[in-house]
Amino acid sequence: MSSTGDKMKGNLNEAAGKAKQGLGEATDNERMKGEGQRQEVKGDAQQVKGEAKDTVKKGVDRA
């Protein structure tokens, strides 16, 4: 997957995770809050992966 794709998936996962956390908070559902937190962390990791790919590509382009 491209770096842009990783970043986009990361943003979507973060947004979905935050929504799940909010819904879990509103309904007092600990399981949903936990799922939301995990999904948000997954989104963060995907964004970091995309940034790393960009960094590597820029380094290769300069070489």
Automatic annotation (TrEMBL):
SUPFAM superfamilies: Hypothetical protein YjbJ. Residues 1-63 are annotated as: Disordered. It comes from the Bacteria. Residues 6-58 form the CsbD-like domain. Gene3D superfamilies: YjbJ. InterPro entries: CsbD, YjbJ_sf. Residues 28-43, 50-63 have a biased composition (Basic and acidic residues). Belongs to the UPF0337 (CsbD) family. This is CsbD family protein. It comes from Stutzerimonas zhaodongensis. The lineage of its organism: Bacteria, Pseudomonadati, Pseudomonadota, Gammaproteobacteria, Pseudomonadales.
